[in-house]
Structures are given as C-alpha cells and as structure tokens.
Amino acid sequence: MIRSITRWWVLGFTVCVVPASLAYGQASRGFQMQPVSLVAAVPQGELRGIIRDQRGGALIGAMVSASARGSSPLFAISDREGRYVFRNLAPGAYFVRAYLDGYASPRGGFVQVSAGASRAWPIALNRLEPEVPPIFTAGVGAIGTSGSAPALPRRAPDDDEVAWRMRQLKRGVLKEATAAAIERDLDRVTEPASVWRQSIDPRGGFVSLLDSVDGQINLLTTTSFDRPQDLFEPTAIAPRPIAYVSLVAPLSGGDWAVRGSITEGDIASWILAGSFTRHREDSAHQYEIGLTYAAQRYQGGNVDALAAMRGDSRNVGEIYAEDSWAVTSLLTIAAGGRYASYDYLADRVLLGGRMSIAYQVSPTRPLRFRVTAAHRELAPGAEEFVAPTSGVWLPPERTFSALTRTSELRPEKVDIVELAAEHPVRGGVVIGLRAFRQQIDDQLVTVFGRQVAGNRVATPGHYRVGTAGDFENYGWGATVARNVGSTQATIDYTMTDTHRRDTATDRLALWFIAPGTLRREERVHDLTASVRSRVAATATGFLVVYKLNNAYATSDSRRPETAGRFAVEVTQEMPFLDITGARWEMLVAVRDLFRSEMFEGSVYDELFVVTPPKRVTAGVKVRF
Questions:
Q1: Were 249 and a residue from 67, 256, 422, 586 both cysteine, which residue would form a disulfide, CB within 3.0 to 4.6 Å?
Q2: For residue 291, with 0-12 CB atoms within 10 Å meaning exposed, 13-18 middle and 19 or more buried, which class applies?
Q3: Alpha-carbon gap, residue 166 to 173, rounded angstroms
C-alpha cells in the first residue's frame, strides 16, 4: 500500500512540476534536477537583441537558437519590433544563430552570458535575391551568371538537398558560382577570430570548437535492377547498407571539410576525402586543396571480378588544387590541376589540368565571355572511386573488368577547348551559347550484361570496360535557365559532329559484344532538361533530370538508338524529429544515368554505356 501511494505521489509531482519547468525554464540544460539551494546560489543571465534586415528594418517572426555545450538548443521568436530574449540562462558561452524564410542565415557565433547580467547581441539578416542557375556546357562546365568577377566556390560538405543536382555538377577542375552562391558562402564567416576567445568560460571551463562544426550522417541502402520485377527474384542483388559521415569546420579564413562513406558485404569498400577552401571576402584570391582515397575489396564468387583484381583489392588516391584570381572586377583567371594514382592500371599515374579566362564587357552590361582549355584523364571504373562534389555519396559498389581477359584497362584522355558567352534577360532568364572542340584518345565503353566467351557478366553488379578508338568532335550548344520562386528549370541543347581518327584496339570484341559503339562519322543531338523544386508547405524537395539523345549505343545493333535516361530524387523532411536538435530527412532516389558529371568530358561518355541498370537508393539523412 505504501509503495503504491509513493508511486502515485511521484507521478503527480512529475506531471505538475515538469511542464512548469518547460514553460519557464529556458535556461535549463536538458532536464537535470538540481538542489534548490544551488539554483538560488547561482544568479542567472539574460541574452537579448534585435533582428534587422540589411536596411535596418525590424524583422518579425525570425527564429533564434541558442545552444550551450552539452545541452539542447533553446529557441525564441522575434516580436513586432524585432526583439528576442532568452531569460534565466545559466552562465557560459552560447552559440547563437537566426533563421527566417527568404533571408540568408549568418554563420552565428559564441556569446558569453555572465551571471546576473544582460547581454545584448544584435543580428542582421540579408534578404536572398532570386538565384540564377548556372549555364550548363557540353564540354567544360558552367558559365558564371554573376555580373561581377566570380570567386572559386568552396566545396560544400554535402550539397545534397537533391542528388545529381544538375546546376552543381562537377565541372572539371575549376568551377564557377553565381553571385548569390558566393554571398551565401561568405555569409558563413561573420565572426572574427576573437569569437574563439569568447568560447572560454570565465569559471575555467571551455566550450569545444566542435560545437560550431556542421555535420551530417546518412544511413542508406542501395541496389540495382534491370526490371522492377527483378527485385523479387531469388537471384536479385541484396540491398547494400551504406554509412556516410560529413564534418565541416568553418573558420575565419576558410572551411575544413572531411567526408567519408563505407559499405560492407561481398564488396567491402570505403571512400574518404578531405579539403580546405579559402574564401575571404577581402581577397581577390581564392583557392581549394584536397585529397581523396578509396578502396574496394571483393569477396564474392564472380570469377571475372576476382581475376581482374591484382591481389584482392583496388586502391585509388587523388590530390587536387584549384585557384581563382580576380584580376579586376571584370576579369578573372582560374587554373587547377589533379594528380591521381590507380593501382589497377598498367600506368598508374593520371594527370589533369584546366585554365580559363572570364571577361565581362562592362560593369553595366552583364554579357560575359569565357575561354577554357582543359585536359582530363579518366580511368576505367573511375565512377566507383571518385568522390562526388554533390549528391548522394556512394562508396565503390560495383566490380568491373576488362572487355576480354586479354584486354588491357586503358584510361581515356580528353583535350577540350571551349568559347562560351552568356547574358541574363528579363524575368530571371539566362541564355548561354558555346562552341567547343574535343579530342579523345581511347574513348571508354562500358558494357553491362553481355556474354563473353560463353560467360554471362554478373549484372547489374558487374560491368566490362573497353575502348572504342580515338575521336575528334566539334559542336555548339545553347542553354536556357530560369528561376521561378523555389523552382529552378534548365534546358540544354547540344549538337556535335564526330569523326573517328583511329580504330579501337577492342574493335573485334566490340563487334560481337556492343556493335553500336563502332562509329565513324555522325551528328549527335542531345537535349537535357532538369527541374528542381521544393514544396514549402510539405517540406518536400524533388529533382527530375531527363537526357534525350539520338546516339545511345545498343548491344544488338550497329545503328545508334534514340532514347532517354533519367534521374529522380525525392527528399521529405521529418519536422516531428526536430526535438533531437538535428534535421531529419527521408531520401528516395532512382536513376539509370550512369554518370553524374555529364558535361565534363567526351560527348560519348554516357552514350557508350550499354544497357545500364537502374539504381535505387533510400534511407535517412540526419544533419546537425
């Protein structure tokens, strides 16, 4: 009886006291109970301020967060005069940020709250201007859409609001950014170096610098199939688990970033990348340096995959450097280079480089021209090892081998020269034109699911790679891009005249396996459209990419095929989990586009991927 009365007394005390603590105790670090004498002995502090826009006007309804080490974040909403206040704060350092739809959130900083004192911390938010998506180019990359000289864009920790984001595809060695994108990057660095001194608690404690690190964890599964019904076959490939982690530490002079992904199973593999990006607002010189390392170990029963590996694994490493220098407000010079080592190639070392000059006609006329020269060397199977600059991170998940057992894996080498121009017009529309020349040695061919010497390739988890010869391509293209609210749409058309300069070393095997890759001269038409949008009412984001081309290679005919390939991704936020202090999203993506960087190299890179399987990826993304 006494035990029952005690249980009901404790339950009643909890129901009465805890809600009152939640309603009044903004300063409580979690739900730890303290003796009354201790609470009374330590005076509490207060943090208040006013939120204004770039014109000095008060902003209503802005959300302000304040978090201390080891505690859940606290939240306040600005009133009609733009004022916010946190009362009864325990003394210490708090990391403060502000958010409001339609405004760029500044980086935020540490604010020291003293016992028995009120600390003022004003916050300024800049209204976001409609961002004009960059122009896609068939050979080298996008033309910057800013009227001012572009800065080298920093590599985002994971720009994967949607995967295979067309407007942020990897564009060779150097990439350009729009003015709005550069402004958002610069807005991340709003506090001076002294902010780290503010993180020292006067009582001798120290707030870890990790409190300012942006992070993301993805728990995903992925698999491939040729037809939807194949997913229910006993021989279907089991979904493979993938874990991905990203950490970015913004500093006053730049960002340190570390990203990694790992999977296990018959293909045990991982990929790790680190980079430093310098993006100081007061400097015309921007640069980025980084490295990537990836490994793949196969323990399955595919004889071809085992025979193709030297030892029992493959290892790939890459170092890169990119530099951009704004000579004047109208002239920008950019250059960069890459050094990569692939241990499964006879010649392990691959080199790449790029240089471009961008010029704007005048400060009042947004017409811009750019000349670019680039050299790229692409290893067979590089898609399994190269870290993407955006989209879903997937470690090496498929095996590959040479086209025949006597063939040699040889890298593709591409030299590109391009002249491009772009001009914004009314209604947020940007029009771009370009002309380019490509010279390709050992054009790569990727073949899924064909029989070789009576042995059927283990599809879709294994493919074969060969070369289709040397080509020389000339072409031109036009792009129209527009932003309408939260929707970005782009249409790109390219016409290319191709000419084969030399026959392929694998031409005999290709004659039987993929005759559609044996080309001489032809005219290639390509139409690529993308739509990216976000539905604010439901917190749903989606991306749809469709590539229509008249020159896809087939396995049963020498004539090219007119067909289309796609990539679709949907993300759904889960706001009911925001109580954890992290942002949760569900992800579902399906695609049969084999390559993500479609506008970086040869026009045949995607067209000579024969019968690629569809790949589905799903899981949970957690940002903190």
A1: 256
A2: middle
A3: 17
Buried b (16+ CB within 10 A) or exposed e, 500-521: beeebbbeebbeebbbbbbbee
Task: Look at residues 331, 333, 311, 308 and name the one whose alpha carbon lies nearest to residue 458.
Answer: 308
Instruction: Give the C-alpha separation, 400 to 507, whole Å.
Output: 19
375 forms beta bridges with: 353, 415
Put simply, whether the predicted model's pTM sits higher than 0.70 gets the answer no
CATH 2.60.40.1120 residue spans of the chain: 2-127
pLDDT tens, position by position, 314-336: 999 999 999 999 999 899 999 99
For 166-183+216-623, CATH number?
Answer: 2.40.160
Contact 442, 393 (CB under 8 A): no
What is the side-by-side strand order in the sheet with 109-113? 74-77, 63-67, 92-99, 109-113
- Please tell me the distance from the alpha carbon of residue 285 to that of residue 283, in angstroms, as a whole number: 5
Task: Give tens-digit pLDDT for 46-78.
Answer: 899 999 887 788 888 888 888 876 667 788 899
Q: Which among 246, 274, 163, 273 is positioned nearest to 532, based on CA atoms?
A: 163
Q: Taking a C-beta distance cutoff of 8 angstroms, is the pair 530, 536 a contact?
A: no
- What pLDDT is attached to residue 21? 38
Report the pLDDT value the prediction gives residue 119, as an integer from 0 to 100: 85
Grouping H, G, I as helix, E, B as strand and the rest as coil, residue 180 is: helix
Q: Does domain 2-127 have CATH number 2.60.40.1120?
A: yes
